[in-house]
Amino acid sequence: MTGTIPTMMPDTATAQTLNQQFGIPQTVRFDDGPHGQPHAIITADDATAVLYLHGAHLTEYQPTGRKPVLFTSRQTQLKPGKPIRGGIPICFPWFGPKQGDPAAPMHGLARTQSWNLDAVHKLDDQRVQLTLTCSIDPFHVTYTVTVGTQLELHLRVHNTTPANTSASAARFEQALHTYFAVSQIRSVALAGLAGLTYLDKTQAFNRVTQGPEPVRFEGETDRVYINHPGDCTLADPAWARQIVIEKANANSTIVWNPWTDKASQMPDLGDDEWPDFVCIESGNVADNAVELAPGEAHEMSTTIRVEDL
Nearest to residue 10, comparing CAs of 111, 135, 114, 113? Predict the structure, then answer.
C-alpha cells in the first residue's frame, strides 16, 4: 500500500511533480490536460476514473466491462475559475445562490477552487484511494475518493474556529452534484423517494409530496427532497442496469435535469446533451443545512454501485 505523501500545494502542482510524488506505475498517473489543469488518471483492476485537482472534481468513473457511470459535457470549460459541467461537482459552503448575496458564485466556492492533493493509496488490486483538502474560512474540508467496483466518496467538514471561543455555530450547505449518464432521460426511473416532501424549484419552491410511484422525467426537473437520509436506485432498462446510491449523514436528495429550453441557455452544455444525464445529488441543503459548532466536524458519505437489471 502506498503511504501518505506530503501535501502538494495547488500552485506548484503539475503533472510532472504529481507523478514524482504520487504516481503509482500502471495505476495512477497525472496529466496537465487542457489549460494546464492537472488531473489523476486512475486504473484499478475493477474500474477507471479521472479526478481533477480543480474543484476536486471527478469527471469519469467506469467499472470494468460496463458503460460509463458519469456524464461530462463535451462543451465544458476546463479553465481556472470555471466550474466543470458534469461528473461530480462539490457544492459547498452553499447550494444554489448564496442567501443574501446574489452576486456570489452559484453553488459555493469549492467547485472552482484548486484543492491540495494530500495522499494516494493503492489499497489493493481492486481499489485506489485519493485524499484532497481545501480551506474555506472557517472550514477545513477533506474529500476522500475510493475507486473500485463501487465508488466511495467521503466529505468531511471541520469548523476550525477554536472550541474554547464564544463564536457561534457556522452554517453550511453541501451536495455532491452527481451527473449520472443514462441511455435516455425519458427511459429511466428513480426509486426511493416515495412519500417524501420536495421543494419544486420549477414552481417557485412550492412544497410537494411525492406519490408512491418512481420519479420519471417528462420535462424540466429541479427538486430538493428534504429529510431523506435513505438510498435511491436509478433503473435504466435500455442499458440493462441500475445504479444504487447509498448515503450517510446526507439528509437531502436533489434531482435535476434542465430539459431542452434551459439546456439551450447553458454555454457549457451541448444543446443535444440534456437527454444523456440526470443529476441525483446527495447532500444537506435548505431545511437540512448543517450548523457546526467551533471545533466540531461533520462527515457525509456516498457510495455508488452498478448492478445488472
Answer: 114
